[in-house]
Design goal:
It holds the Pfam family DUF1501. By secondary structure, this protein is of the alpha/beta class. The chain is about 35% helix and about 10% strand.
């Protein structure tokens, strides 16, 4: 097939995919990313370095129904229809328990592979989704910042493109620096028109003589998507060690950001880690947590998906030396208000829990659970500055100076990470 015919086919066939468009525009493709492992094999990049996976829960996850203060009467008084009865929660101590949908995370907690940072937030909280998420991603609560905290680390280390990768539909601000920027490799696969098979698309990805570099890259990116589809499909059928994946259950999403296929994104991260790709930071996301109405069913669906995706990923990472060096941080832009609203939901709040998972994590609680009676205009008062969490992983996972990359904030480093798995 000559280059012109192939180009016309690619445009007119209806084959679409985020990575195809991205690779054609000069953004790193999945196959290109996998090939960066050759740098490690050749000794051009140091092997055995820790990896950070950042999981963003867009929409403002209700932390009080995630890490549940089941023994506190104030919790039950504030939300009588939404509060979980003590016998339903997965108890982790005499005061707190996990949402009943988080059975996989409870198993990781029992194995000391999960830490919970309580009451994470920032001074003078903003209840706007977009402003609050911007604050978390730039780590700059006081003044607007043009760069993300990971982006500043990329600048400071003069990092290569593949050092930070997002498997989200769009590059998040936290991976943007002044002189360096992370790569965006969307997890989304192929939508094939009738009569077009994956084998046909793979054949179209072969090099053709006489075509421009841009045409070659655009065409090759479709074959790239075939590889991505295989990785994602294989993962969806495997599940975790003790649970099966929920298959086709619909996961809600909203206009507040994120996507609804965390398992697919983490499958691509796992493939890269196991292939010894030299990426140090991965960004993935799950959207839909803006639960103003009918929260119980909505949040439980999302938390079930989160639980299966995270527990399956951490289980898989435990099988390899590289995987045991992976640390996962799960956060949302804010929690919800303490009192339920009239629509069986909750409105925008402030502080919430942060999960840190992995085989190098020193499991347990960090920080203090906020009071449910000493409130700030009906909202929780943060007891841990979120920059202490990011400062800790900057120092201990990325070997960076938190003062330099957190805008001069003096982070209180948390003893989250142990020597296990290193």
């Amino acid at each position: 097939m000559d280059a012109l015919t192939r180009r016309r086919f690619l445009i007119s066939s209806g084959v679409i995919g985020g990575s195809a468009l991205a690779a054609g525009a000069g953004v790193l493709g999945f196959q290109e990313l996998l090939r960066t492992a050759e740098k490690v094999a050749a000794g051009d990049v140091e092997d055995g370095l820790p990896t950070l996976v950042l999981v963003t829960l867009y929409g403002g996850n209700d932390g009080l129904n995630t890490v549940v203060p089941y023994a506190d009467p104030a919790y039950h008084r504030a939300r009588p229809e939404l509060a979980y009865a003590p016998e339903r929660v997965l108890r982790i101590d005499q005061a707190l328990g996990l949402n009943p949908m988080l059975r996989g995370l409870k198993r990781l907690w029992d194995a000391k592979h999960m830490a919970i940072v309580l009451g994470a937030g920032y001074p003078k909280p903003d209840r706007s989704h977009f402003k609050s998420m911007d604050i978390w991603q730039t780590a700059s609560p006081g003044t607007p910042a043009p760069t993300g905290w990971v982006g500043r680390w990329l600048d400071g280390t003069k990092a290569a493109t593949e050092t930070a990768v997002s498997f989200e539909p769009a590059l998040p601000p936290m991976l943007v620096g002044k002189s360096r920027i992370g790569a965006c490799v969307s997890y989304r696969g192929l939508v094939l028109p009738p009569g077009v098979t994956p084998d046909v698309v793979s054949a179209l990805g072969q090099a053709e003589p006489g075509e421009s570099e841009m045409q070659a890259r655009a065409a090759a990116s479709y074959a790239d998507l075939i590889t991505m589809n295989r990785v994602v499909t294989k993962s969806a059928g495997s599940g975790s060690d003790e649970q099966s994946h929920s298959g086709g259950e619909a996961v809600p999403a909203t206009g507040t950001g994120g996507d609804n296929a965390l398992t697919a994104q983490l499958a691509l991260v796992a493939r890269c880690v196991e292939s010894r790709v030299p990426t140090r930071v991965y960004s993935v996301s799950l959207g839909g947590f803006d639960t103003h109405a009918g929260e119980r069913v909505w949040q439980e669906t999302l938390l079930r998906h989160l639980d299966e995706a995270l527990s399956g990923f951490v289980d898989r990472m435990g099988r390899t030396e590289a995987g045991r060096r992976v640390t996962v941080v799960v956060y949302s832009e804010f929690g919800r208000r303490v009192r339920a609203n009239a629509s069986d939901g909750t409105d925008h709040g402030t502080a919430g829990p942060v999960f840190v998972l992995g085989h190098s994590v020193a499991g347990g609680f960090y920080g203090e659970q906020p009071s449910l009676t000493d409130l700030d205009d009906g909202d929780l008062k943060a007891t841990t500055d979120f920059r202490d969490v990011f400062g800790t992983v900057l120092a201990h996972v990325l070997a960076g100076d938190p003062d330099r990359y957190l805008g001069g904030y003096r982070a209180q480093l948390l003893p989250l990470l142990s020597s296990r798995g290193r």
